[in-house]
Amino acid sequence: MYFTDIPGQAELKSYLTSLVAKNRLPHAMLLTGGEGYGKLALALALSTYLQCPNKTDKDACKACPSCNKANQLIHPDIYYAYPVIKKDKLKREDTTSQHFLPEWRTFVTEQPYGNMKDWLRQLDAPDKNANINVAECNQIYKNLGLKTYEGAYKIQLIWYAELLGKEGNRLLKIIEEPRPDTVIILIAHDRSALLNTLISRCQIIPVPPVDDQAMQQLIESKYELSSEDTQELTFLAAGNIRKALSLGVQNELTYSEDLIKWLRVSYSGDPEAIVALVDELAPKGRQELVNFLDYGLHFFREYLLLLNTGTANNLRLTQTEKEVAQKMQKIINFDKTAQIQVVFEQALGYIKRNLALKVLIMNMTLEISHILKSEVDNFVS
Ligand SMILES: [Zn+2]
Q: How far, in Å, is the centroid of ligand 1 from the Cα of 44?
């Protein structure tokens, strides 16, 4: 992974490379930020950059043996620790990241923006809980105690560092008194789950969402969507590359059409139309319904902004969506929007509990129908 492979994050990339140029890179850092913002990819690119003897001020050279090894995740001076599960006949307490290196290499190569769910799927264990254990911490000590083989640094990445739990205490000493050529990069989604003692010894590097322009370029380079759908997906992804990649595989996005249809049918209250809609939406499956509900929540957040400000100019909606939103103002006020949001949020919760989709969609439709047809109180416009 190289910096130029990663969409957006221009400011952060130049900050990191400038730290290296000034020889002021901290021994321990914590990359933290939301899902799909590129934390792991940036940590990998930084490791490659650090080890490359021919680096420029922007990126590694991409051609030397060091770059090649780093890129294939086989550089002897770059170590990876990540949550794992029990493996075959090994005891769980003896299992460490080393036992899953082939799976890790495939995962990082194919899904560098993947999350824990994707990783567990890679391990063929979607229902297991992975963690980072004592043996792993001991291994990290061992790794960083060794002399460098061929690189300029000993680099240790720890992905999902929040899963260290109290074992994080075991790393304090090595973070506090590192060898001069050691760099430890913790990567965490949920900073609040990390021990304070650990956080306070790291330089915290917040990773922001990927900007819209970079996201749009990424989507255009990967998928052949209409320009309206590209824009819709850019807004919907909201800086999350994983989300953009998982939604972009469809040939066209029909979320906004589906939402409008849903609201129209709910408003009509026509039983036949409701049954037909349920029959149409249910076969799309659980994940698609999650994506759709996510879209609905995104739309209504923007819609509330419209109600608040009275202008559609700065909304993260496409032109068509803006027009729909403007027309909706006559029918759906603040109060009703808030109620519909609750229905969507609850449905997201129910989906995880394996409720039959038809029942769920039918329930939602009836609830939304009830909300839309209720008397318009407290109308603010
Ligand atoms: Zn190089």
A: 14
pTM tops 0.90: no
Query: Are 295 and 180 members of one domain?
Result: no
275 Cα: distance to centroid of ligand 1 (angstroms): 61
Q: What is the pLDDT of residues 351-364, one digit of tens each?
A: 888 788 999 999 99
Q: How far is CA 266 from CA 204, 256, 278, 368, in A?
A: 48, 15, 11, 6
State the CB neighbour count (10 A cutoff) for residue 266. 23
CA-to-CA distance for 77 and 71, rounded, in angstroms? 13
Note whether 199 and 271 are same-domain residues: no
Same structural domain, 263 and 342: yes
* pLDDT score, position 216: 96
Continuous H helices in the chain: 10-21, 39-51, 65-71, 101-110, 116-122, 134-145, 172-176, 196-199, 212-222, 227-237, 241-248, 255-268, 271-281, 286-309, 319-328, 334-352, 357-373
How many other C-beta atoms are found inside a 10 Å radius of the C-beta of residue 47? 26
Enter the tokens of residue 221: 């380079």
Q: The domain containing residue 270 runs over which residues?
A: 254-373
Separation of CA 53 and ligand 1 centre (Å): 6
For 153-208, the pLDDT digits (tens) are 999 999 999 998 888 888 888 888 888 899 999 999 988 889 899 999 999 999 99
Q: What spacing in Å lies between the alpha carbon of 15 and ligand 1's midpoint?
A: 19
Please tell me the predicted confidence (pLDDT) of residue 381. 42
Cα of 167 from ligand 1 centre, angstroms: 35
Tell whether 218 is covered by a domain: no
